[in-house]
Hints:
The structure holds three protein chains of three kinds.
Chain A: H1 2-32, H2 39-55, H3 60-81, H4 91-113, E1 129-131, E2 134-136, H5 138-160, H6 162-172, H7 174-179, H8 184-206, H9 216-231, H10 236-257, H11 262-276
Antiparallel strand pairs in A: 1-2
Helix pairs in contact in A: 1-5, 1-6, 1-8, 1-9, 1-10, 2-3, 2-4, 2-8, 2-9, 3-8, 5-6, 5-8, 9-10, 10-11
Chain B: E1 2-13, E2 16-27, E3 31-35, H1 42-49, E4 57-62, E5 65-66, H2 75-78, E6 80-82, H3 95-101, H4 111-115, H5 119-139, H6 154-166, E7 172-176, H7 184-199, E8 203-207, H8 211-217, E9 220-225, E10 228-233, H9 235-240, H10 242-255
Parallel strand pairs in B: 3-8, 3-9, 6-7, 7-8
Antiparallel strand pairs in B: 1-2, 1-4, 4-5, 9-10
Helix pairs in contact in B: 3-5, 3-6, 5-6
Chain C: H1 7-22, H2 29-54, H3 62-78, H4 84-105, H5 111-131, H6 133-136, H7 156-177, H8 180-190, H9 192-197, H10 202-228, H11 238-251, H12 256-279, H13 287-302, H14 307-319
Helix pairs in contact in C: 2-7, 2-10, 2-11, 2-12, 3-4, 3-5, 3-10, 4-10, 8-10, 11-12, 11-13
Magnesium ion (MG) binds near residues 43, 85 and 176 of chain B.
Amino acid sequence: xxxxxxxxxxxxxxxxxxxxxxxxxxxxxxxxxxxxxxxxxxxxxxxxxxxxxxxxxxxxxxxxxxxxxxxxxxxxxxxxxxxxxxxxxxxxxxxxxxxxxxxxxxxxxxxxxxxxxxxxxxxxxxxxxxxxxxxxxxxxxxxxxxxxxxxxxxxxxxxxxxxxxxxxxxxxxxxxxxxxxxxxxxxxxxxxxxxxxxxxxxxxxxxxxxxxxxxxxxxxxxxxxxxxxxxxxxxxxxxxxxxxxxxxxxxxxxxxxxxxxxxxxxxxxxxxxxxxxxxxxxxxxxxxxxxx
Amino acid sequence: xxxxxxxxxxxxxxxxxxxxxxxxxxxxxxxxxxxxxxxxxxxxxxxxxxxxxxxxxxxxxxxxxxxxxxxxxxxxxxxxxxxxxxxxxxxxxxxxxxxxxxxxxxxxxxxxxxxxxxxxxxxxxxxxxxxxxxxxxxxxxxxxxxxxxxxxxxxxxxxxxxxxxxxxxxxxxxxxxxxxxxxxxxxxxxxxxxxxxxxxxxxxxxxxxxxxxxxxxxxxxxxxxxxxxxxxxxxxxxxxxxxxxxxxxxxxxxxx
Amino acid sequence: xxxxxxxxxxxxxxxxxxxxxxxxxxxxxxxxxxxxxxxxxxxxxxxxxxxxxxxxxxxxxxxxxxxxxxxxxxxxxxxxxxxxxxxxxxxxxxxxxxxxxxxxxxxxxxxxxxxxxxxxxxxxxxxxxxxxxxxxxxxxxxxxxxxxxxxxxxxxxxxxxxxxxxxxxxxxxxxxxxxxxxxxxxxxxxxxxxxxxxxxxxxxxxxxxxxxxxxxxxxxxxxxxxxxxxxxxxxxxxxxxxxxxxxxxxxxxxxxxxxxxxxxxxxxxxxxxxxxxxxxxxxxxxxxxxxxxxxxxxxxxxxxxxxxxxxxxxxxxxxxxxxxxxxxxxx
Lengths: 292, 256, 331
Ligand SMILES: Nc1ncnc2c1ncn2[C@@H]1O[C@H](COP(=O)(O)OP(=O)(O)OP(=O)(O)O)[C@@H](O)[C@H]1O
Ligand SMILES: [Mg+2]
């Protein structure tokens, strides 16, 4: 029984992170039809910049805020000076473009921070919380809290603000949106800012649970991408659910089957789902006149 | 002799009933025109008859055989080909290559004979070139054969698409607004070309807004409005049909 | 009877034969090994260009097929004692079958979904290499894979074997491209609806492109295992898949010559980076990653079609005449 709860907690923690990354993917995708495979690097940058800033003796809160701001800026620069000029009509080229960006960022990070692993101090004490035989790191609670907070902020922004309506409009009909006087480039910039910021927060939140290094973004990004695809790329609630599903499958797979096979189990699940539903669990097949 | 028989064809997209219970037939060697205001469902009918989208309900038969279980890529082999309202050309290929793709269903060299350039495949390739060239001549753009398709004008691309659809020698050709965007001379030339197709024994189902072309060419006209068939008859009869006039006038009011 | 090849392609092919054939006479043993690895990579990327540039699909897991080829040879020769030549034959077939099964499973996927599925497949295969210890030797991999009889000095002979294979694969692919099969690939790339309407079975041709790419990757993988003598899971993952992708994209996916040139170019850049990092230690680390990343980004933005198609376009521009007048050229 305690094992079960341990797996559950692990699954919720990593699933929450995947959900945040996936929402970052979807936010950008909705606005600009770009899948930003450099998304995982935002998490890596968040964690590592926070480590460096803390190293200068800065207070935790300030370091946190500054790293999130810096990553947000980086995200906006990427959109403004690179992705905006990508071939928007060609998904394959866009994939390759953002893969290029992600390895570029990772390479630059390896020059700054080397290939060593860094430990980031947890938000609060290192003491695990224990009740009736189940123990969990305090940081895990913080991660779950951060995830819930981010999910709420995304939900609020997208559903309760004019900005969210404008961004949604871009995803429905780009031309009409432009005619309504909304600048899709600006929306895309905002989407990148939001994804980068949420990615940085998620990256800082999970860094203390494990060590962090220049290449942690790869797997986090891929799992987030998996969640976005599994959830169907459209619906933030769908991809959130998919994120948690992947986290849980991974945790229970690692615990009950084999930790070496946990990723394989997740990927098998994804291929299996796509075989049955080619647009993910919650994605609608695209309706359009298909150029006829 | 009925070549194509369509019965009670319907199709909806979500809440939109694009086509409602449409029945008609096309005889062998006949040119049938399908007209109607924008959004009447003409393209949708064409897409269903050519196997691009499945009907929600209804029956389509070709030479007495139901097409219900026939996969989209087998239509060309049966002798049903089409052109598209929004051009679907392969613009990174030459004009000749574009037309040669149209011969796919009547050629059969496989991967190994092509990869190893076996004599059989080479002969077939030469044969395809010759045949495609003939069709380009027939539609009048053989002088452009070796250019990349992306360099052609809109009208020339339409002709190329028609040659691509015709070169397999289909029994039934579906044309979705072939004259859209053409000028008077080009339209007149195209009208002549279609007459030649008819003489060769190909039946045509023609969706078109150009009334000159329709009145000159069609043996029979079917009129759709808001997804339903509202009239059918010879060009003469249709011109005098009150419902048809109302449908078109009504549309003019809308768009004004 | 018509000539088998046009004059221009004969010249290109002649230059290729000359360069590939004379290369071993100008370098050290080290360069020879670089040439061998480049040839092995080229076999994979030519197959990948059929999938990406022609059929318009994406594969983010091509290294998996390469790995399946290598492991097939490795397992059959070290564990089953099979003769290396026979093992090589099977090493070509198994990845082709794997590609067939994968493509069957994911035939209906488009764009980003296809990217995800191929990515997932690549990970699964690499994980299996690492985890199925009793067969694959796990993380330690397989050692003592025998060289191919007749080519067991692993020097100049093996170089010519590899580049002979590159040449075969190249010619075979060129044959396909300029045939109804290649046109069918390009047709489904541009418009699946139009392709279907002229009788092309879209799913089957996608399948065929993947199978050919699997076959080529398998041949290369088998030879790689023969050449290295030891294999482990490390080179058969995402990193390598992306490297293949980079090679194809830089050279120009819609051209097998592009894939070949891209492979040589990226391979050479890698070597240059290696030499530089020996002389300037501060460049150590992931300098090559930065360069690959930058190349991909710059390439997609400024030259999305890749090097060879860009060159072809420039040359065509130079000779471009106004549209021929009607009936002047009429065959
Ligand atoms: N794939 C689709 N998804 C949703 N609605 C569709 C689709 N295809 C057609 N429709 C709708 O069905 C109706 C009929 O469309 P259709 O294209 O058949 O008209 P049409 O008669 O060809 O018009 P036009 O003269 O403009 O070409 C329209 O209301 C259209 O919006
Ligand atoms: Mg229409």
